[in-house]
Design a protein that fits this description.
The complex is a heterodimer of chains A (about 550) and B (about 220).
Chain A: H1 16-20, H2 25-53, H3 64-99, H4 108-130, H5 144-147, H6 152-179, H7 192-224, H8 237-271, H9 278-291, H10 307-335, H11 344-367, H12 369-375, H13 379-409, H14 415-441, H15 456-482, H16 502-505
Chain B: H1 18-53, H2 55-62, H3 67-92, H4 96-127, H5 148-181, H6 191-215
Classes of the chains: A mainly alpha (about 550), B mainly alpha (about 220).
Chain lengths: ~550, ~220
Amino acid sequence: MSENQNINYLNHPKGIMSWLLTLDHKRIGLMYLFSGIIFFLIGGLLALGMRLELAAPGNDFVSNDTYNSMYTLHGAIMIFLFIIPAIPGALGNILLPLMVGAKDVAFPRLNLASFYIYSFGALFAIYTIVNGGVDTGWTFYTPYSTQSTSNVVPMTLGIFIIGFSSILTGLNFIATVHKMRVPGLTWYKLPLFVWALYGTSLVQITATPVLAITMVLLILERFLGIGIFDPALGGDPVLYQHFFWFYSHPAVYIMILPAFGIISEIIPVHSRKKVWGYKFIAYSTLSIAFIGFLVWGHHMFTSGQSVFSQIVFSFITYFVGIPTGVKIFSWILTMYKGQVSFTTPMIYALSFLFLFTIGGLTGIFLGAVALDIHLHDTYFVVAHFHYVMQGGTIIAFLAGLHHWWPKSFGKMYNQKIASLCALGVFIGFNGTFFPQFLLGLRGMPRRYATYSDQFSELHTYSTFWSTILGLSIFIAILNLMWSLRKSNKLNPGSNPWGALTMEWTHTSSPPHPHNFESDPVFTNGPYDYDKVIVEPTLKK
Amino acid sequence: MSHNSSSPDFLHHHFHDVDQQYQTSKFGMWAFILTEVLTFGGLFVAYTVYRSWYPEMFYDAHLLLDVQKGMLNTIVLISSSLTMALAIWAIQKKNKKLSLWMLVITWVLALGFLGIKYLEYSHKFEVGQLPGIFYSYMGPEVVNIDNPHIFFGIYFIMTGLHGLHVAIGMGLIAWLIYLTKKDKLHSEYYTPMETVGIFWHLVDLIWIYLFPLFYLIG
């Protein structure tokens, strides 16, 4: 297959400007993907640096101040520069129009603008790193964040700017889902990844503006001393926490909902079975998005809330468990009596089910007020958060990356190496973070560069396995990149996994610059494996 | 339905037809309006919290605002909403001249709003009725007030953000005037005017809430 004969979005049109000024959602998606991966690696190196410091008690590697900067930057970069933009921005951009049979997203220029807004915001973050970091923690709690002499303003300004990128992407996706679907593709025939992106986008356009305004108030507090968060001037620092978590709790669902969508796509394809409980999964997405707005107070059980608020927030928090449980059971029932094949994406998806369940259940622990008073600000929270965010979102991201890589590039990676890395990630992840549950239960506080001797065994254990985790992810990404070399002869065909969603069945891999060579005709539901026979084009 | 010579030049390549393009743009603007409402919503919450903590201070501090200028601005902005709507109506009726006039009047009214706002602000800057640590006004009315700077902090942030929206709206209306003059907008295609119109009504609507909340407490 000569590339000259095969026109696709990667080779047509040519030239660097055709990339930088592209309005093609697939190219914009790739630009998000590669910038996201760069920040993922930076954030990952910071994490490994922290684990190195924590390998033994005492300050043997970095100073306390450097350590404060490291965890703040790790959190802020991973959340605001990688996870929130990367999954909707990269996989969402590449796939959403293809999945709904559209030629592009609703507003292609806006789409390019949001990428550049993201890049502009990222410059502020890079400036923060180069200029000596920021030491407040990624939550920027007042009053410390209004007094700290580190780079609070550049970092929060960067987050403020990136927020607009996130809002515009969300707005674009919502309009695309509503108005750009191919005739015949009704709401209940949408792939579940589209539902997930839709729910995510709703949260993005409604929660992010509140974060933006919070960051503005914080910056004004520093420059003008407006006193809104300063008790000396009649203000209240706890109000900052309310504002911040009103965005940042829903933001957790901005991060996890697309991951749910990816898993909902991968499990039916690699189990050759119709998804179980389609409407349950679709509606649970929307209900998680909605309930997510009503639980922010569970981050503040120790911040001096009334007992009544504590009970109410705790109670509503439990409700999040219901739609989440519905999803987990639906995925398991989808696999039941299916032909499960242990491909790389499926190994990641199965790890997701296992790890996310642990992350979700420990979230219920933390939602209980009495238990949270003990566990608040300990490593239990760190472990829970990473089981949800890394064990959930990032593993789903890697699953999606391996699932749609042949779609995006028309190349297949070395599957043996990829599967071994997937196992390495699973084992390394559990080795790193499971001990942190125990550390937290025994009272090890988070955000400390040193600790007393009683914790050293578990910390050393955690550090050891973190190297396996880091190495596995690094090799997995290298393996993907290596597949792009010119001499790679592994041709996956247009539909390697034998999937039924439109991005696989109606266009070539990689797709045509205008997505479909002729106007697509919607033929079958996305998961009709019981009605349609489709052969995987990938030969083993 | 590929591109053919009969498709109008204002139709972008990724839409099937004119109606889909029109509906999508309008829908996108409404979604953006939702974002805007939430942006101001955060500030309205801050307002509510502090007013409930300091009800007397809010009452006493609001007496320092200029109700007449505020009232005048309300009338100016509501009128501009009307002229904006008339501009859209005129272009639908193929009356380019009237539409242009209405846009120009809308733009001038917006400028008037900012002018009046400037007079209000500059007075407050002179006497020191300012946010936070910059507050220095010590007139007889405020001797017994706790933390009036909080009131002015919220006042300046909310009206300032609103003023920024008016300024952005002026830029958009100027763009509409240019497009209409160049016959880029006409009775077949006036989507930009309609979406900017939606935005402009929102700007008006927010002021209709800000005015009583700051100027008419009591």
